[in-house]
Amino acid sequence: MAPAEHDALRAPAEPAAQPAHPAAPAGPAAPARPAAPAEPAAQRARRVDVFVALGTAVVAIGLLLGLPPLDAVDPDVGVSTTYPAVASWSWTVLALGLLAQSAALLAARRATRTTLLVVAALPVLVAGIAPQSSDLFGLTALPVVVAVVLAALRVPLARLWPALLVAAALVAAGSAVVFAVGGGGFRGDSAQALAGSLGQGVLQAVGAVGLPLLVTLLVQSRREVRVARTAEASAVDREQDALVDAAVSRERAAMARELHDIAAHHLSGIALMAAVIDRQIDADPERAHEGARQVREQSTAVLDDLRRLVGLLRDDTPAERAVETIAGVVDLTERARFRSDVRLDVLAGDRPLADGVGPLAQLAAYRTVQEALANAALHAPSAPCTVTIDDRDATRLVIRVENAPAAVPAAETSRSGGNGLRGMRERADLVGARLQTGPTATGGWLVELALGREAPAAPAQDADGSGVVA
Questions:
Q1: What mean pLDDT is predicted for residues 302-324?
Q2: pLDDT value, residue 23
Q3: What predicted TM-score, i.e. pTM, was given to this entire model?
Q4: Secondary structure of the chain as H, E, C letters
């Protein structure tokens, strides 16, 4: 084996020595820093739960330690309160109860309703073990408020209300026990004490369960309304973008039709006349000069149409809106006779030509005849072509362009054609006309366009309804 062949076989197995980027300087490549992994959603949720539980515990213990000194230095307090001493039995039980309530909030995401019931039941246990903590027992409502807020945010109200009722009952029971036992409510009249304890429990339940639930539902409803409005605004923006895109697409299709009509009619005529001039320039110079003048006229017409189209597209240029009508088909066929045998047959009724046909429909008819004549001259050169305008029907106007079979082979055309027939059909659909195209029985081609007439305006009537206006 030759050395060159041996090197060629060994080359693919050798590692490439080129740098990863062409512009990178030679030298040892710096080690790529690994991308920081995204924090999982479960880890972020767990961190939030720990933050909520820890914050609740800090606030509750802080109030437990700070309320007695604040009441002691406040001269406006008219009712003497007896707080349990710090580290006493009642104070320790209450502090442990607050910490247990805060710790239970860690499971609020996994078992929301169970957590709510546990947080609401712990104050009942504290009230039974240490009823002497009545002056500070209201702090147990703070973890209950947090549990209610978390439950209302995570569970639908339809599934949450049984747990809310049980939690309210537990809060009321714990408060009633503390008021009745620790506050000495039953030392006097039993009925009055029972009513007072129940009233105290209901107030505590409303404050710890009812009000937080109401505030949470209001905030959540406002958030849902804001989300709905944002979604509605986004939907409106998307709809507006879709409308703009549709309008742009329609304008692009209209521009494509106009450009195709201009190019297909004028430029195809120029090409055919140039071919005729090439054959006549030696045999018949006079006819060749006449054809050259026609080429110049067609070129001028192309430039005028393009200037008018550009003027319609530009905002800073005054545009001339020359709208072609069915009456202009007469001049169109006269100009087409210079390049092929075209005959015009107008079958008029007892009304003006194209009476009741709107301007947009007349423009579509003009462009259809223009495209049909261009196609006939291109695909069936030297074949006679007949344009018929039938205006005798009172409900519609029919235009037919029919050419005979080609007498000589047609010139080779581009394979990307078909835009002319597509443009005819788009114009017909735009004005609600009926278009038929296809070969004839004799081997030619027929294009037929039927345009409906607009309904005449109803005559004005006078006061007596006679239909005659003086």
A1: 62
A2: 43
A3: 0.47
A4: CCHHHHHHHHHHHCCCCCCCCCCCCCCCCCCCCCCCCCCCHHHHHHHHHHHHHHHHHHHHHHHHHHHHHHHHHCCCCCCCCCCCCCCCHHHHHHHHHHHHHHHHHHHCCCCHHHHHHHHHHHHHHHHHHCHHHHHHHHHHHHHHHHHHHHHHHHCCHHHHHHHHHHHHHHHHHHHHHHHHHHCCHHHCCHHHHHHHHHHHHHHHHHHHHHHHHHHHHHHHHHHHHHHHHHHHHHHHHHHHHHHHHHHHHHHHHHHHHHHHHHHHHHHHHHHHHHHHHHHHHHHCHHHHHHHHHHHHHHHHHHHHHHHHHHHHHCCCCCCCCCCCCHHHHHHHHHHHCCCCCEEEEEEECCCCCCCCCCHHHHHHHHHHHHHHHHHHHHHCCCCCEEEEEEECCCCEEEEEEEECCCCCCCCCCCCCCCHHHHHHHHHHHHHCCEEEEEECCCCCEEEEEEEECCCCCCCCCCCCCCCCCC
pLDDT digits (tens, 9 = 90+) for 133-155: 777 888 888 999 999 999 988 88
